[in-house]
Amino acid sequence: MGNRVISLLVIALVMCYGLSKAVGYRDEDWGKQREDPDQEQEEQEHEAMMGDEDWFLLGNSKQVVKTKAGEMRVVKSVGGRIVDKPMHIGFITMEPQSLFVPQYMDSSLILFVRSGEAKVGLIYKDELGERRLRAGDVYRIPAGSAFYLVNTGEGQRLHIICSVDTSESLGMGTLQSFYIGGGYNPASVLAGFDQEILESAFNVTSTELSDFLSRQKDGPIVYVTDSPHPPSLWSKFLELKEPDRLQKMKRMVGYTEEPEHHEDEQIQAWSWRKLLNSVFKRRDDDPDAFKGKGKSHDAYNLFKRSADFKNDYGWSKALDESDYSPLKDSGIGVFLVNLSAGSMMAPHVNPIATEYGVVLRGSGTIQIVFPNGTSAMNTKVQEGDVFWVPRYFPFCQIASRTGPFEFFGFTTSARKNRPQFLVGASSVLRELRGPELAAAFGVNEDRLSRIVHAQRESVILPSVQASTPYTGHEREETPEEEAGRRTTPYKEDERRRRQDEREKPAEEDERRQPRYREDERQQSPQERQRRQPPYGEGDVISQRLPKVIRSLGNEMVMGFD
Questions:
Q1: With 70 as the cut, is the pLDDT of residue 245 above it?
Q2: Both ends of the chain: CA-CA distance in Å?
Q3: pLDDT tens-place string over residues 8-53
Q4: CB 85 within 8 A of CB 412
Q5: How many helices (H) and strands (E) does the chain have?
Q6: In this model, does residue 73 exceed pLDDT 80?
Q7: d(C-alpha 220, C-alpha 94), whole Å
Q8: Strands annotated E in 224-373
Q9: pLDDT at residue 497 in the model
């Protein structure tokens, strides 16, 4: 009996061990299987970055709206762990006197009016807010908020660049719109309800309701004035007389004067009535139609903003939450940069955000560097191109020599951006100069100082031909001198060279003068005669003379020998 019990215990132990090994194997295998997708994704992202420089040049564009009156296309961002916040870039083009019909979206938009004029209506805190937008204006439309957009420019197309923040999106596509007004194209969200429900809600007959929800066929962007184009539902509505138009709007929003309605319902009904009334009212009926109305936030004009940095080679502007509070809700910043021909934005790092840029005019080159010091991108870009720079990655922008290079963009942080410049008068290298940095480069401190102080400009740097070579004798500028130099205009490189020559200490000129005279004594009279400049060109030699003599004019120069 005792042996049987022992045998049963041994068998039980063996079975438990086998079961635990089997479960453990499955757990390990499941764990490996669970980790493999992440590892595979990392490998795919790494291969994509290392193998294709154009990975940082966004070219995956999708047309989300296309009608005779305008279009909207969206350039999709790349995915992956390296992207700290998903963001697409949208482009809206509208013909004169056209309307982007009332709708709401599953993504927040930051609008930037590149050219033209517009009126935007937005339901904000249960009230309609209207704002007139001009070129350079920045305006935010929150996700889920009903809005419309009208091109009010006389004979001018409207061009808008916008960020598409997909952090709140449903993931049903690049961008999902929910059209409030519509018919066959686009379909209104109202059309999805049962016929009886809508008849009761609108308090209209079935025939009238069917006609109302089937008239629109022109798409999401339509003309709203008389034109050679086929009339739309909206333009036909405008032709109604004032009393008929008012009654039509009341039926559209289900408005009633019964006092039994709940307060929230009354506010909502009045809000929709104000929205539709704003869309359909003609400008000549209301001279104040484009003045700001309602509680909606105002726009911010980036073109009128003073440059945050400016020198002879370009300027830059940055807009953050401290300048425009609506940006705080989206967590997105805005920037605008203009580089003169041949200049560059010094190599730098953005430590808090990823940048998305759009070339507005001109052409140039974008260079991005991997963390291991190899080139990630060295690509020429031109007007209309969209590029992005991951957070922490060093990069710079270089303008072509054919003209200015201007680009606009968004950052994935609304906080004040403090880029870390790697080269220039305000670079981190100057702040870190010392034995530690010298040891890191394997040079002595004198040579390190010579290198990091060679560039006298900061942030936006000149081309190689326009920059002044470092001779090793210049002293470091004080902040006041540097600020004064930034604001002094130089109209040509030759004038800059002469100005730098005059700023050198007089003792340096005195040291150079004996060598110059010694060279003159070694020349034969015939050689000196050949080197003598003709009248009117004494400035060539006067640049090489001491400051005191040079100031006396050509007579002293001619009698120098």
A1: no
A2: 131
A3: 666 766 676 665 555 444 444 433 444 444 555 455 555 555 556 6
A4: yes
A5: 17, 26
A6: yes
A7: 11
A8: 300-301, 309-311, 314-319, 333-339, 344-349, 355-361, 363-369
A9: 52
233-241: list long-range contacts, CB under 8 Å, 24+ apart: 233/183, 234/99, 234/101, 234/181, 234/279, 234/280, 237/280, 238/280, 238/282
Distances (CA, A) of 97 to 155, 221, 224: 8, 10, 6
165 contacts 87 by C-beta, under 8 angstroms:
yes
- The model's confidence at residue 231, banded by pLDDT at 50, 70 and 90, is very low
10 Å Cβ neighbour count for 472? 10
Which residues, 6+ apart, have CB-to-CB distance to 147 below 8 Å?
A: 102, 103, 104, 120, 121, 122, 123, 141
* E strand residue ranges, 153-246: 158-165, 177-179, 221-223
- 44-53, 170-179, 254-263: range with lowest mean pLDDT: 254-263
- Give me the long-range contacts of 479-483 (CB less than 8 A, separation at least 24): 482/425, 482/456, 482/458
Quickly tell me which residue has 């940048």 as its tokens: 355
Entry pTM = 0.68
Strand partners, 66: 71
**The tokens 């016929």 sit on which residue?**
195
Task: Please tell me the distance from the alpha carbon of residue 57 to that of residue 44, in angstroms, as a whole number.
Answer: 18
The DSSP call for residue 293 is: B
Q: Hey, what are 496's tokens?
A: 């800059």
522 pLDDT above the threshold of 80 = no
More confident residue, 463 or 201: 201
Alpha helix segments (H runs only) across 369-478: 428-432, 435-441, 445-452
- Identify the residue with better confidence: 226 or 98: 98
